[in-house]
Amino acid sequence: MKKKHRKILLVDDEPDILEIVGYNLSEEGYQIFTASNGKEAVAIAKKEIPDLIIMDVMMPEMDGMEACENIRKIPELSNVLITFLTARSEDYSQVAGFDAGADDYITKPIKPKVLVSKVKALLRRLNDKEHNIDTLNVGGIEINREEYKIVKDNIEIVLPRKEFELFYLLASKPGKVFKRDEILDRVWGNEVVVGGRTIDVHIRKLREKIGEELFKTIKGVGYKFEV
């Protein structure tokens, strides 16, 4: 996935931190969202489905530890990477962070360039994780990426490669609403120049071949076009 498609949620009660970190990451091409406390972070995370959350620990209303634990309980956010960015460097604090479900723990102060490098490393981890998933099981449907087949109730449904890749993409993140440019980038890449209408056609074919009810079984899956 290209950088511009990666969403990063920054959570800190210090506006200066949000501004500085947000600026440096947006300059790298990432899409940035911000929250000033844990409660707000959980709400925004559920709405935007970010790829990475960078979160302070000590915050009003809901601290980072509790927010992390709440986020980990939300199914559609199970693959989100979470790292704490905090001035607390004690060993017990870091252990508590990992126990709460964090993937990494970064202590302040940190130079912007170093932070950007750490973010890139974390997102590479996410890329590797996505690329290594061969089989998905969603809503009773088994989607085998290696063999390009879908199995529902022991009945195999064979799809052309592009239709399969589109269906696999939608099923890979239940609850996420994909934008047109992201779908084109993930499924068609740089192979050929295609228009948004191409997605409409493939979605229609998918509904015809696998059935409307089966398509809807993947709860919350959808797609949208940018205006």
Structural write-up:
- The chain is an alpha/beta fold and 227 residues long.
- It is built from nine helices and eleven strands.
- The strands form three sheets. Strands 2-1-3-4-5 form a five-stranded parallel sheet, sandwiched between helices.
- It is elongated and about 55 Å long.
- The relative contact order is 0.11.
- The model is unreliable at 219-227 (pLDDT under 50).
The end-to-end distance, rounded to whole angstroms, is 21 Å
Find the structural class using helix and strand composition.
alpha/beta
Count of runs of 4 or more consecutive helical residues: 9
How much helicity do the residues have? Answer: 40-55%
Largest sheet: 5 strands, parallel
The 3D shape can be described as elongated
SSE pattern, N- to C-terminal? EHEHEHEHEHEEEEHEHHHE
Whole-number mean pLDDT: 80
Rg (CA only)? 19 Å
What kind of oligomer do you see?
single chain
Beta strands, count:
11
Strand residue percentage: 15-25%
Strand order, main sheet: write it out: 2-1-3-4-5
Q: Low-confidence segments, ≥5 residues, pLDDT <50? A: 219-227
